[in-house]
Every structure is written in structure tokens, then in C-alpha cells.
Design goal:
This protein has a 7-stranded parallel beta sheet, sandwiched between helices. The protein has 9 helices and 7 strands; from the N terminus they run βαβαβαβαβααβαααβ. Helix 1 packs across helix 9 and helix 4 runs parallel beside helix 6. The chain is globular and about 55 Å long. The chain folds into 2 domains: about 200 residues, Rossmann fold (3-Layer(aba) Sandwich), CATH 3.40.50; about 35 residues, no CATH class. It is α/β, with parallel strands linked by helices. The structure holds nicotinamide-adenine-dinucleotide.
Length: about 260
């Protein structure tokens, strides 16, 4: 099979598809023939991003709301046909010590980063199982695998995603639907860039420059990731070539950790 056409005839729905890793995954799948629905809480950005991909549509959706998620899937299916590929990239980040965080912070995080993917999965999965084909990829984080100071409840939500995907992969293994997790290291997207900018403002230029150097030392490959690095792994797991890969967590992290 030629790599170029890996997604010919496939419909892919990507949450958090307006930017960052979600959009890079969408670009990659579209470049290999897939038809894309880009869903995002920022509906205008999703619509704008969709104009850059042939035949793509943008959908406004808050993945924490069940009615929004059902409408998102219905909209994608009415415009493009049954969803073959579901990538859940939407997320938020909080940079806070656990002891400075509140139950409201945890609730928001669990709602976007764990409950949101569950709602999406619950909505797309029955059709995939009925049709005997599906690819689901959720984005997690290496913080879920090794822990990370200042990201405790984000890491906890992402660890939940990993457990969810492994468990459901066992439940539907015979149906032709695979579920996997991609776990990125630090990747140059708005999510990371915003966090870095706030650190730079807090630390000042000199201390921040030292931080950048010490972070880079943690990456054996000597660089931070680009969205395209992560998109390539997502595309593999979404392809027919990955039909015997399910319930797995693939860290794409320049060697940052080797869990
Ligand atoms: N960038 C990194 O360094 C990094 C590292 C580890 C894991 N990740 C994970 O990769 C995924 C993609 O991250 P990114 O860096 O591209 O982030 P990003 O912030 O650049 O993009 C995330 C998108 O999700 C959307 N979104 C947020 N809340 C939403 C909601 N409730 N409903 C619908 N859409 C919503 C945002 O509007 C945004 O367009 C996330 O799951 C993130 O946790 C990223």
C-alpha cells in the first residue's frame, strides 16, 4: 500500500483540531487522502483551519458537553459520512502546585481532559463497532507516566485517559476497532508556547534562558518536538497498517523519558 493514499475514503474527526497537534494530525491525514472534520471550542478557528484542507469542515464543539459532542458527531457524519478515525487532541493545561490548586481547578481539568474524551468515545464507538472498523487515538502526556511537578491534576486526568483506552481496547478488540494513546514530550504548539511565555515573564530573561538550556539537556535528541513529529505517530496508529496495535501508549518525546 502506498503511504500517500493511506487515508483514501476515510473520514477523520479531530477534536482540538483548530491548532497545534490536532491540526498537524489533520493536515497529515488530509495529505494522505482523508476527509476531515476539525472540531474545537474555538469554532471560528476550526472553520478557518478547515479552509486550508481540501473538503474539510470546521465544527464548534465544547467536548465537555454531551449535547455538543453528539451534535459534533452528527454534523461530521451528515457532511462527510461515518467517522472511521477519531483523534482526541483537545485539552487544557494548568501550571500550578497541587497545594495551590482547588477542587474547581481539578473539576475543569477532569471535565476537559478525561470526561471529554469519554463522551467522544461513547458517541463514535458504537458506529465503529457496528461497521467493524475504527481507529481511535487519544493524546496523553508523559507526565501521566512519570509524574510532573506543577502538572499533578493534568497528569492524573491523562493517566485516566490511558487506563480508559487500554480497558476499552480490551472490550472491543475483536471488532476491528483499535484504541491507542500518543504521549508527546514538550512540543512547540500554542499550549506549550503560552506556558513558556508566562514562565519567561515570571523568571526574567536570564533565568528563563538558563531554563531553556536545562530543558534541552533532558532531550537526548537535543530539541523540542514539532507538531509534525507527533502527527506522524498519530497517522501511523490511524492507518490500516496499525491493525494489530491496540491498547498501547506510544511516547513521542525525543527520548525525554523511556518508560
Ligand atoms: N504541546 C505539548 O508540549 C504537549 C505535551 C504533552 C501532551 N500534549 C497533549 O497534546 C494534545 C494537543 O495539545 P496542543 O499542544 O496541540 O494544545 P493546543 O492548546 O495548541 O491545542 C488544543 C486545542 O484544544 C482546544 N480545546 C480546549 N478545550 C476544549 C474543549 N473543551 N472543547 C473543544 N476543544 C477544546 C483549544 O481551543 C485548542 O485549539 C493535548 O491533549 C495535550 O494535552 C501536548
Amino acid at each position: 500500500m502506498s503511504v500517500r493514499g493511506r487515508f483514501e475514503g476515510r473520514v477523520a474527526l479531530v477534536t482540538g483540531g483548530a491548532r497545534g497537534i490536532g491540526f498537524a494530525a489533520a493536515q497529515r491525514i488530509a495529505s494522505e487522502g482523508g476527509r476531515l472534520a476539525l472540531a474545537d471550542i474555538d469554532g471560528a478557528a476550526a472553520a478557518e483551519a478547515a479552509t486550508t484542507l481540501p473538503g474539510a469542515i470546521g465544527i464548534a464543539c465544547n467536548i465537555t458537553r454531551e449535547d455538543d459532542v453528539q451534535a459534533m458527531v452528527a454534523h461530521a457524519e451528515s457532511e462527510l459520512g461515518p467517522v472511521d478515525i477519531f483523534v482526541n487532541s483537545a485539552a487544557v493545561l494548568d501550571d500550578k502546585l497541587f497545594l495551590e490548586s482547588s477542587p474547581a481547578d481539578w473539576e475543569r481539568m477532569m471535565s476537559v481532559c478525561l470526561h471529554g474524551p469519554m463522551l467522544g468515545l461513547r458517541t463514535v464507538l458504537p458506529g465503529m463497532v457496528d461497521r467493524g472498523y475504527g481507529r481511535v487515538v487519544c493524546l496523553a502526556s508523559d507526565s501521566a507516566r512519570i509524574g510532573q511537578a506543577r502538572l499533578s491534576y493534568y497528569a492524573a486526568a491523562k493517566a485516566g485517559v490511558i487506563a480508559l483506552m487500554k480497558s476499552v481496547a480490551q472490550e472491543v478488540g475483536r471488532s476491528g476497532v483499535t484504541l491507542n494513546v500518543v504521549s508527546p514530550g514538550a512540543t512547540n504548539t500554542p499550549l506549550r508556547i503560552n506556558r513558556e511565555e508566562s514562565m519567561r515573564a515570571q523568571m526574567g530573561e536570564e533565568k528563563y534562558a538558563r531554563r531553556v538550556q536545562s530543558v534541552l539537556k533532558l532531550y537526548p535528541t537535543g530539541r523540542i518536538g514539532e507538531p509534525e513529529d507527533i502527527a506522524a505517530a498519530i497517522a501511523f496508529l490511524c492507518s490500516d497498517e496499525a491493525s494489530w496495535v491496540t491498547g498501547q501508549v506510544l511516547s513521542v518525546n525525543g527520548g525525554f523519558v523511556m518508560p
